Amino acid sequence: MYWKNVLKSNVTTIDELQNYIDLDPKEKSLLKKVVKRHPMSITKHYLSLIDFENPDDPIRKMIIPSVNELDLTGSYDTSGEKSNTKFIGFQHKYSQTALILSTHRCASYCRFCFRKRMVGVSSREIFRNLERAKKYINHHQEINNVLVTGGDPLMLSTKVIEKFLNRFTKIEHLDFIRFGTKTPVFLPQRILEDSKLLSVLKKYSKRKQIYFVLQIDHPKEITKELQAAVKKLQLSGIILNNQTVLMKDINDKPEVLAELQNMLVKVGINPYYVFQCRPVKRVKQHFQIPLSKGYQIVEKAKTMMSGHSKRFKYVMSHRTGKIEIVGIKDEEIYFKYHQAKDIRNQGKFFKKKLIESAGWLDELR
Predict the structure, then answer these.
(1) pTM of the complete model
(2) What CATH number corresponds to the domain at position 125?
(3) What is the residue range of 28's domain?
């Protein structure tokens, strides 16, 4: 397929990167150490969005390796994925949702990825048994949706994607199927040039509703190519939602966050979640902002948004559940379980003593 050939031109080495940015010998050596542990891969399309004259360009910060990735503060499994794995590549954390790690590959590798432990690194956690998944879901009638993620499932062949859809659309108690993807941002050609994929999506969206959960984190990512891909997906019956990670020096200005959410609505993408950046190893120190600051940014941004633009929940994906950051009053910060691993916590409202520097629930008392 044409899109697979396009991926062959990705920038994957620090030596290739030097064609775009100047690196002194020491920085070059350190970055080679970084990408040896967590590979770099950047599509030419995504590279074209970077203003290389601006060292603070947000696209640059999100996709180009940094020496800050040598900082090991944090964890490689902040959301407790290991404890929710029922068999290789298949997780069941929330009663209604089955999650499948379909691949460890993406069209490009975000430097803030919360699955940094595996994406671009190892296929050991990758799903291998479709029939076993089908049996598990059939035996768990409480499951009403499947999330196919990774990595990025649109890096799979259209034939494999169709296998997932063919199996899951036949399960009567499933209401919908989701694909978590950033491919329309990184590699819009995957959508624009693959009529077979679109026909498969259109075929199966008539059986069950299919959602694409996109990862768009900055207004610069909403290109004409992305918008064209969105239209083709919509015409194929796909509903598009978006989740954004709130990140230091990327989208942590209220004006930028508001512009992003407003633009999403304008092009037909539904705001879904704004995530507190997880305390992931090689990510936490240079991307995470404190919860107290994040809350203030989100609330100020909402004053610049329409009702449709601010439908999202500001949450942290904690090992105990998706916890909404609800408010701050005096010296306390208030939370609510939007989703809970333990059903007894569902909807639970609670508070903690506010610590201005805390970026995660475990840092609060």
Answers:
(1) 0.96
(2) 3.20.20.70
(3) 2-363
